[in-house]
Amino acid sequence: MLDTARTQDAVRLEALTKQYGSGDGAVAALRGIDLSFPVGSFTAVMGPSGSGKSTLLQCSAGLDRPSSGRVVIGGVDITRLNETELTGFRRESTGFVFQSFNLLPSLTAEQNVALPLRLAGRRPDRRAVLRALAQMGMEHKAGSRPSELSGGQQQRVAIARALVTRPAVLFADEPTGALDLSTGRELLAVLRALVDAADGPDGVGTTIVMVTHDPSVAAHADRVLFLADGALAGELVAPSPEAVAGRMTDLAVAR
Fold it and tell me: Which spans in 96-220 are helix H?
């Protein structure tokens, strides 16, 4: 487990770039990003289509390698790790939530949540697995398979799976994108509670970095970062849906 208490930043990005292709066909997805995500904070990342927000999230989480620059999580420069080290680091220190849930249909909710521990070669502690499900209000569905759960329940199980290792940072890519409005609001309340709780790995709430396209979703965060053409294009602190929507409109007009 990382000692994030020794640094005020859960994640720090330094001169981060990502380029796809080469020569005349090269596309710069990220252009020298300098950015930090404080411990115990909730950050939303927004931008027009093709702005680089998903690439930023994937590079920050160690799911993709940047072309240059550094990604430092809890004091560890993950860009210096080899593939084996990086895989182990992700399993122990970060969690990732996808829009599509990615639960294995043949496994129960409890077994899906325990999967990261098994993949890490650890014998799952059933109490830890049930505790993660309880955080999501899903302990009563521990024996249910994904086909027996609603979309919102499946996403709660997916978040429990990401939390079972007690990661330093939870990354979420459009976590409400596949949910109806009411269920999405319920899920956002759960994420907000994770940030505000004081029972995280270092006595603070979970650090969450979330990509979204919805101003109402982004307004649940402490701040919203805006990207345009692979570069930072401003931020809003204590955002309102109206302020976020206005900033997104300005970015669209500027293009």
Answer: 109-119, 126-135, 151-163, 181-196, 215-218
